[in-house]
Amino acid sequence: MGPPPSLDQGFPRLQLARTSDQPQLFGMPEPRRESRTDSASREISAPPDRVYGAFADPTALIKWLPPAGMNGRVLEYDFREGGRFRIELTYRDPPSAGGKTTARSDISSGRFLTLDAGRRIVQSVEFESADPSFAGVVTMTWTFERTPGGTRVTITADNVPAAISKADHDAGLRSSLDNLAQHLR
Predict the structure, then answer these.
(1) Per-residue DSSP letters for 77-122?
(2) Where are the domains positioned within the chain?
(3) Is 132 helix (H, G, I), strand (E, B) or coil?
(4) What does the alpha-carbon distance between residue 39 and residue 46 come to, in Å, rounded to a whole number?
(5) Residue 95 has what pLDDT?
(6) CA distance 53 to 31
């Protein structure tokens, strides 16, 4: 009879590898925050410059931006590249889980990263929330493409936190685009 087998005999050795983009906490890689990209598009019966103008004026913006079931208020709005904005959306009938910021509201803030008149707006957006599942910077890109009937407006939201329901977010994006179309009639 030979010596007893060692504990690791017949089992592969586990080695943890760390890539340079994985931060570590107590020697273990931190979990990656899950996110996704959401998008919506709609034809608007107005030329691209008029659509762009509905973003440039905060009084006009807050009339159409809040999705169905919400009211809005502009808290800060400096419409220039690098300018900051802060907007509060309040639920008329709050969800049972409450809003992202308070029981009745979502407050978001960010910067205008790119303003290309009549063509494109790119902005960073962050939710003010104590819940870390809503953390992260979302990049919102609005594009305006001239069409025979007016303008095809497309909104693309990159890095949407997984805690934001895809179905609710898609409905909200479509609702805002419908409101924009009504506003520009």
Answers:
(1) E--STT-EEEEEEEESS--TT--SSSSSEEEEEEEEEEEETTTEEE
(2) 36-183
(3) helix
(4) 21
(5) 85
(6) 41
Average pLDDT over residues 31-51: 89
Distance CA 171, CA 154 (A): 14
pLDDT, average across residues 74-92: 97
36-183 adopts what CATH topology? Alpha-D-Glucose-1,6-Bisphosphate; Chain A, domain 4 (3.30.530)
Nearest to 136 by CA among 115, 111, 162, 112: 162
**For residue 135, which amino acid is it?**
A
Note the pLDDT of residue 120.
98
The single-letter DSSP state of residue 19 is: -
User: What is the pLDDT, as a whole number, of residue 4?
Assistant: 53
pLDDT tens-digit readout, 135-154: 999 999 999 999 999 999 99
